[in-house]
């Protein structure tokens, strides 16, 4: 079968377990071995950096860098769809008008009460 | 006044003349002495309200706390910048201190100006050293974008202010704050007057910042070096608040109707920016958005024009200045060790740097307005005066308080608790300089608990 030999003391990944082989096509097995080789290479790079005695900084994770960049720059990947437009309207536009209506009617009601003299305004030195 | 201004100006020759080994201790000591002398401004004995009254400059209970905060912040900025500028050539370090000093000088002139045009000129003048600090000493390439946003948002907001002030000068003949407060209310009836009203306030709303025009703030705060972030968060935002509080006295009958959109933007902004804080991955960005959130409350407090609203706004400005600056210093201690602002990368620090955790804890508690700190006093006064204005604001401000508490705790738990990343080694122990920096930030905050009358503004 494949010439994959795992490192000493490491276990064989499940995809390369000979007991699982009997119903897998050769193509599938080959692709699984390639993926396992890539993963092993990445792990080796990480382990090299992790155990480097002269390292003082954090190990850089390019996936984390990409994720942080994507989180910090959402407008680059923004696409106006129905859902995003609805979200924008619901949270950005409609509340402003709703709040204007609420505050204006409340304050106008209070103003009418003051003009009619029905609003009880107790004297307070500071307010 | 001159006994503060001349020493501040002389700090520039000190920065350029001090020998290399003594540059930072000398400038630190010099600025600390200026800060201590500035505390004498707090004693307000005048009956007219204006102390240290000169031809063009004066202090009154509104501007004194902000002036003292400005003077207090310079030694803290110098202390915070010492480490990250240590690797630069000496002349660049001197230039950095000169920029900080010139910023201080313009800020003192701005807060103590009695003539509104002088305030405007100093308001614009503070932009230049800040722009240079952000774009030259920032750490990522985004700093250029941040500088452009910062400069042009503020300039675009303040050009209408210039026109409005010149119109006011034409119609009233004077722009001295000493007399403008006692002049007759202006006849403000036409549509152009409404535009004039908006022009007067737009610059300050952009500076505060108000929620709709706040985009410059996260960029500028994140990309600036630590001293830039400190001065931006602590003082430059308050320039907007101070300007609003001065100008709004003259804008009277129109404000009752025209302020509704801005109060709504401010209050909705409290909730929206607070919610955005919960989604941030970048530590400095979280602190920047929390600044927008707190300033939204301040804008709401100022625009309703009640004594408690003004008082609460001033208290919250001072308390937020100290707290936000402290949080940026803490974020910088993280950044200097890991060279990354990502929160995921700097977790579990309680196990590694437990004393710094104590400072993180106090600063986070101050940010979420824990009683009896002045942050709560300011927020509570604003919330109650907004409630008096209209009951429905309580829904927004109450939700805002809840969200503030949750993102402050989120920030604390994310950076301090939890497992340390496996690959994090060689974190320097906390320097005494960093402890001193945090103590100097939080000690005034705690002392203000004992005598809050100093920051009550006109209500004292």
UniProtKB/TrEMBL annotation, chain A:
- List locations, semicolon-separated: Mitochondrion inner membrane
Q: What is its main location?
A: mitochondrion
Q: A Pfam family in this protein?
A: NDUF_B4
- Topology in the lipid bilayer: Single-pass membrane protein
At the top level, the lineage of the source is: Eukaryota
Subunit structure, briefly?
Complex I is composed of 45 different subunits.
What is the documented function of this protein? Accessory subunit of the mitochondrial membrane respiratory chain NADH dehydrogenase (Complex I), that is believed not to be involved in catalysis. Complex I functions in the transfer of electrons from NADH to the respiratory chain. The immediate electron acceptor for the enzyme is believed to be ubiquinone.
Query: Would you tell me the protein name for this molecule?
Result: NADH dehydrogenase [ubiquinone] 1 beta subcomplex subunit 4
Automatic annotation (TrEMBL), chain B:
EC number(s)? 7.1.1.2
Biological process annotations from GO: ATP synthesis coupled electron transport; electron transport coupled proton transport
UniProt KW keywords: Electron transport, Membrane, Mitochondrion, NAD, Respiratory chain, Signal, Translocase, Transmembrane, Transmembrane helix, Transport, Ubiquinone
| Domain of life (superkingdom) | Eukaryota
Q: Where is the NADH:ubiquinone oxidoreductase chain 4 N-terminal domain?
A: 1-110
Provide one Gene Ontology cellular component: mitochondrial membrane
What molecular function terms (GO) are annotated for this protein?
NADH dehydrogenase (ubiquinone) activity; NADH dehydrogenase activity; ubiquinone binding
How does this protein lie in the membrane?
Multi-pass membrane protein
Whether Signal counts among this entry's keywords is yes
Q: Which reaction does it catalyse?
A: a ubiquinone + NADH + 5 H(+)(in) = a ubiquinol + NAD(+) + 4 H(+)(out)
Q: Any transmembrane segments, and where?
A: 62-81, 93-111, 117-134, 146-168, 195-217, 229-248, 260-279, 286-304, 310-331, 352-370, 390-415
**Location(s) in or outside the cell:** Mitochondrion membrane
Signal sequence span is 1-17
Span of domain NADH:quinone oxidoreductase/Mrp antiporter transmembrane: 113-403
Report the Pfam families cross-referenced here. Oxidored_q5_N, Proton_antipo_M
- In UniProt terms, what function does this protein have? Core subunit of the mitochondrial membrane respiratory chain NADH dehydrogenase (Complex I) which catalyzes electron transfer from NADH through the respiratory chain, using ubiquinone as an electron acceptor. Essential for the catalytic activity and assembly of complex I.
The similarity comment for this entry is: Belongs to the complex I subunit 4 family.
Q: What is this protein called?
A: NADH-ubiquinone oxidoreductase chain 4
Name its species: Perca fluviatilis (European perch)
| Designated gene of the protein | ND4
């Amino acid at each position: 079968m494949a010439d994959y030999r795992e490192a000493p003391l490491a276990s064989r990944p499940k995809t390369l377990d000979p007991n699982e082989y009997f119903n897998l096509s050769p193509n599938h097995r080959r692709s699984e071995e390639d993926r396992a080789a890539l993963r092993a290479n990445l792990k080796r790079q990480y382990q090299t950096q992790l155990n480097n005695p002269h390292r003082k900084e954090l190990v850089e994770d390019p996936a984390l860098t990409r994720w942080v960049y994507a989180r910090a720059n959402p407008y680059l990947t923004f696409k106006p769809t129905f859902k995003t437009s609805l979200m924008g309207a619901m949270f950005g536009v409609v509340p402003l008008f709703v709040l204007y209506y609420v505050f204006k009617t409340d304050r106008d009601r209070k103003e009418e009460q003051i003009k009619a003299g029905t609003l009880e305004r107790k004297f307070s030195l500071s307010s | 006044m001159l006994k503060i201004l001349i020493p501040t100006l002389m700090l520039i020759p000190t920065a350029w003349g001090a020998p290399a080994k003594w540059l930072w201790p000398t400038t630190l000591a010099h600025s600390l002495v200026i800060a201590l002398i500035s505390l004498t401004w707090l004693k307000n004995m005048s009956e007219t309200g204006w102390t240290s009254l000169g031809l063009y400059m004066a202090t009154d209970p509104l501007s004194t706390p902000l002036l003292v905060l400005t003077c207090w912040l310079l030694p803290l900025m110098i202390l915070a910048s010492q480490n990250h500028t240590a690797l630069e050539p000496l002349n660049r370090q001197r230039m950095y201190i000169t920029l900080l000093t010139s910023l201080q000088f313009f800020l003192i002139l701005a807060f103590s100006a009695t003539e509104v045009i002088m305030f405007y000129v100093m308001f614009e003048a503070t932009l230049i050293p800040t722009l240079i600090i952000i774009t030259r000493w920032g750490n990522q390439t985004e700093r250029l974008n941040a500088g452009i946003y910062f400069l042009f948002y503020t300039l675009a907001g303040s050009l209408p202010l210039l026109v409005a002030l010149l119109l006011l000068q034409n119609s009233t003949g004077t722009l001295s704050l000493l007399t403008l407060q006692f002049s007759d209310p202006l006849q403000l009836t036409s549509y152009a007057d409404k535009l004039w009203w908006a022009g007067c306030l737009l610059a300050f709303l952009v500076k505060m910042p108000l929620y709709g025009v706040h985009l410059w703030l996260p960029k500028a705060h994140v990309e600036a070096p630590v001293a830039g972030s400190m001065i931006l968060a602590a003082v430059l935002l308050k320039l907007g608040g101070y300007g609003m509080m001065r100008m709004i006295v003259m804008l009277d009958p129109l404000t009752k109707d025209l302020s509704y959109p801005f109060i709504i933007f401010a209050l909705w902004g409290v909730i929206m920016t607070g919610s955005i804080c919960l989604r941030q991955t970048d530590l400095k960005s979280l602190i920047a958005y929390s600044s927008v959130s707190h300033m939204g409350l301040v804008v709401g407090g100022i625009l309703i024009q009640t004594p408690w609203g003004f008082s609460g706004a001033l208290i919250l400005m001072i308390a937020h200045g100290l707290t936000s600056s402290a949080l940026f210093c803490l974020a910088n201690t993280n950044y200097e060790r890991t060279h990354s602002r990502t929160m995921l990368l700097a977790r579990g620090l309680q196990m590694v740097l437990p004393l710094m955790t104590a400072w993180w804890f106090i600063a986070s508690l101050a940010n979420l307005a824990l009683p009896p700190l002045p942050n709560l006093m300011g927020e509570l006064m604003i919330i109650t005066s907004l409630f008096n204005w209209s009951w429905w604001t309580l829904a927004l401000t109450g939700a805002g308080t809840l969200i503030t508490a949750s993102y402050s705790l989120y920030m604390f738990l994310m950076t301090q608790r939890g497992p340390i990343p496996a690959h994090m080694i060689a974190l320097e122990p906390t320097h005494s300089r960093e402890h001193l920096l945090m103590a100097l930030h939080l000690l005034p905050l705690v002392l203000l608990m004992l005598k809050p009358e100093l920051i009550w503004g006109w209500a004292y």
